Amino acid sequence: MGTFALHVIVAVFLAAVTVSAATPAASTAFPVPSIITPHYDTDPLYQVSPPAHLDFKVAYVDYWGQLTDWSRTPQISTENTDLATFCSLQNRGFWFFGYTSSVKEDSYDVTSFSSTLSLAKDFAHPAWIVDNWAEWPPIPRTADENEVSVTYSTDITVNASTNCAVLSPSKAIQFWNMRLSSCGPFAGTSMVVYEFYPAYNALKVTRPVTITLTPDEYQYGSFATVVVKGVVYLYAVDTSQDGYHQDIHVASAPAATVEDKSTWRYWDQGAGAWSSTEPFPIARRQSAAIISLPAQTSLRDSASIFYSAYHNSYLLFFLNGSEDRLRVKYSSTPLGPWSTNDVVVFSFPASVEHALVTPVPFQNGSAVAGQTVLVSSYGYNEPKTKVWKLKFT
Ligand SMILES: *[C@@H]1O[C@H](CO)[C@@H](O)[C@H](O)[C@H]1NC(C)=O
Ligand SMILES: *[C@@H]1O[C@H](CO)[C@@H](O)[C@H](O)[C@H]1NC(C)=O
Ligand SMILES: *[C@@H]1O[C@H](CO)[C@@H](O)[C@H](O)[C@H]1NC(C)=O
Fold it and tell me: Nearest Cα to 233, choosing from 259, 206, 255, 256?
């Protein structure tokens, strides 16, 4: 599309890739087309009341189709994209994908990327994206990972299953699952930091590998991440100890120091207190969990938790995998207690492996944040992200 070419001309490049040996962190910077999408912040209290609109009746659902870049050449299509996760930073809407591959239809050439990044093009049509405008994986590798990759001629594969959490107007974090090769074992979760500089149209992506949670730890931040009044709440799901329940555990840290794991605190629901000692999932700790969901919930072990101004409540949207339905629970704080009767808000027409909900892109003008949400879904048989708009009455 011609208009896109014009946008690219104004893009500014920062240093392409910088890997520092002193601190084992990797960082990448990208030019970003100047496409503006709406973004409205909410700044809730920790404890909110009274709640509103708790029947979660849906006025309408719009199906917007698969995330598609109409400007790409017809010879190349992106296949096998994982769930797309969303990040609204300032006035841009970023979509991050996990392992993806590009297929040339006139041959069988396949180029695979361990992660890709797209930009939302127009939030009146949120399935329209600008894809592959950055041709290298946005999630940077550490020097060690590069060495493994070169030595064994393999690729690290990464995927994220939750949306990013916005720490400050220009900064967000997201947690990515890591594997050292596509069939290798789960290597833990790594925190990734995004910084967007609108004046330069540039997105900087950094991995402070001091925050890599090993497979022996709770994967805090991988189930959901919420920021309230300068505090980050990092949710982990424990599925390992009991085949019938999934316990949700929480850590927290000041947003300003979340990259320093020594500032993390760990919640024990039973004790009603935060501790500076990190617990490990060596036995089931149900009394320490904020909620236990039945095991048939969300096969991909993540949920969307955010504050909805429309409901004046914290909402926990999750996929009930055994019925392919999106359900919601609500609470007056980010820790609960959560409503016990969850409400079905949407039934997917086909089998879904994963679904995420975000309130961000539709908070336009007088619209109250949370009345309209974007749902993105990913299925076994249709491995391309589909997007839906859902409006509550
Ligand atoms: C935002 O609202 C204005 C005025 O109602 C409308 O013209 C515009 O299309 C809306 N934008 C989006 C992205 O919905
Ligand atoms: C994403 O990562 C998780 C954890 O490593 C893994 O279970 C899942 O299979 C991955 N998905 C893909 C499509 O690689
Ligand atoms: C998930 O769906 C099953 C089957 O409909 C139901 O029995 C179960 O209670 C649901 N779980 C939750 C947490 O809603």
Answer: 255
